[in-house]
């Protein structure tokens, strides 16, 4: 049965726009899905290498701005040279945002992974703050605090077939769903590869991993590249869906949201960021129907604290243990599909 759970989940979520009439709720699902994608990328660092990045929103924002500027076009003067860029299709912008965010992940990884623990956290936060200040003060390029309005929505198609513009919420919902599925497959293949085993070994015992020849910097930087690129994709999708961005996209709250999704869902699991993202993405909307704004965020915080205290490993590991006991095979902790942080057995 566990083997078919991912397919059942995909089929269910694919059917949501067919029966869900509340467009605001569908909008919430789209935004939550984008942040789930960003949380999945953070999970590569936090869950599988054990490195807490509190500046992960920088890659998200870089992807958003690169994609927006690519599709809007710009003219900027750099060292006396005037650089003018004509608008390109939004899909190209998302691809470029992914690539630039991945390159930034490489550069920051090479620098930041020379330190560990609290020092790495400080470096990651500083990087995010520097990027935010650039977006805020480089008015000629980013329009600063006035924001970048009029970002075109995504289009799908080719010149010889014609382009379809994704204006509707349902259309964007399916784009985000496909992006999550692709990211899930990529991360799963990474985790169950020698690359994934090396990441997990570094997380569990870095000294022992180094003693058997695993290059710490190499694998941590590779994880940073993949994490940065996926966060950049999420940022690009966000920019073209919301159609306006400003430096507030770099606010620390967005990073905290990603961390909450990973921790409560179950760090180091494939489905953890999805489960955590679904719960904490929809919780404000559900609570808004029953309580006033003065209690909404209090209950939101209490829910998070309750999950952390009752299920310290996260929701997904707790469900896996429950299934293991109910099937009478508690000793087998390997995932059939959904996932655990343990490396696959040889």
Q: What does this protein look like?
A:
- One of its GO terms (molecular function) is branched-chain amino acid transmembrane transporter activity.
- It is found in: Cell membrane.
- By secondary structure, this protein is mainly α.
- Helix content is 66%, strand content 6%.
- The protein has 14 helices and six strands.
- It has a two-stranded antiparallel ribbon with strand order 1-2. A two-stranded antiparallel ribbon has the order 3-6.
- Strand 1 and strand 2 form a beta hairpin.
- Helix 2 packs antiparallel against helix 10 (216-242) and helix 12 runs antiparallel to helix 13 (293-310).
Q: TL;DR of this structure?
A:
It is built from 14 helices and 6 strands. It has helices at residues 5-19, 23-46, 57-72, 90-112, 118-137, 139-142, 169-191, 194-204, 206-211, 216-242, 252-265, 272-288, 293-310, 315-326, and strands at residues 74-78, 81-85, 148-149, 155-158, 162-165, 244-245.
- What spatial order of strands do you see in the largest sheet? 1-2
- Mean of the pLDDT scores? 86
Q: Extract low-pLDDT stretches.
A: 329-346
Largest sheet properties: 2 strands, antiparallel
Q: How big a fraction of the residues is strand?
A: 5-15%
Gross morphology is globular
Order of helices and strands: HHHEEHHHEEEHHHHEHHHH
* Beta-strand segment tally: 6
Amino- and carboxy-terminal Cα gap: 24 Å
Contiguous helical run count = 14
Give the helix/strand class: mainly alpha
Using only C-alpha atoms, the radius of gyration works out to 21 Å
Percentage of residues in helical conformation: 55-70%
